[in-house]
Amino acid sequence: MRVIRTVRLRLVPVSFENAGQLWKMLQQPDLRTYQDLPNLGRNAFAELVGSRPRQLVPGGTGRFEWMVKPLRSRDALGWVSLRIVERETNAGEIGYSILREHRGHGIATEAVRALLREAFEAAGLSCVQAFCVPDNLASLRLLERLNFRSDGVLPHGATVSGRPVNVLIHRLERNRWVQSGKTMEMPASAYPA
Q1: Which pLDDT does position 91 carry in this prediction?
Q2: Are 12 and 115 in contact (CB under 8 A)?
Q3: What is the 8-class DSSP label of residue 129?
Q4: Are 133 and 166 in contact (CB under 8 A)?
């Protein structure tokens, strides 16, 4: 996997060597409000990450994950992920989370936009899905901004805080992404300081 750069961000591939930084972020309790995160120790998490594929190529499968970092800092602001399963290698599922203190500045939108470009161009996917719990209004607005369409409800589609919850399915087809101006990036001056 490669480092992905945007106007303000670097998306750095998660590997065995830097998995501890992501593991540390995963320990923040507010991140478990809308998602079920792995409850593994640091070493077990690093081993899991180390077993993931190292290259994102057309037809490739597995979980691909990047930490979201500012261009000139080593600090992670959150992460984004792409999961491609063997039974449907032309489609993927994205995930994303930004730490609370960095929300509301367009970071998730910028990072997910870059992830979509990687999914459609590098992996050659024809469709990307995102699953979101109905209460996560910020995530729903992000998906709407990026031109995803609602694709129904998956009853008890996830477990959050130990209880089953419904999830909303969102879908973005490659042709819709292309038509929406996939390469358009906001100039740096358009972002809040």
Answers
A1: 93
A2: no
A3: E
A4: yes
| Closest C-alpha to 100, from 28, 37, 36, 22 | 28
Q: Which residues pair with 96 in a beta bridge?
A: 80
pLDDT tens profile 119-138: 999 999 999 999 998 888 99
d(CA 153, CA 191): 33
Sheet containing 9-13: give its strands across.
4-5, 9-13, 62-70, 78-84, 91-98, 127-132, 163-173, 149-160
CB 141 within 8 A of CB 161: no
Encoded amino acid at 111, one letter: A
Cβ contact 58:15 at 8 Å: no
* Distance of alpha carbon 7 from alpha carbon 185, whole angstroms: 8
What whole-number distance in Å separates Cα of residue 88 and Cα of residue 85? 6
For residue 73, is pLDDT > 70?
yes
> Strands 127-132 and 91-98, how do they pair?
parallel
Give the per-residue pLDDT at 31.
Answer: 64
Distances (CA, A) of 99 to 50, 117, 178: 24, 23, 30
pLDDT of residue 184: 43
Query: What average pLDDT is seen over the chain?
Result: 85
CA dihedral 76, 141, 173, 157 (to 10 degrees): 80
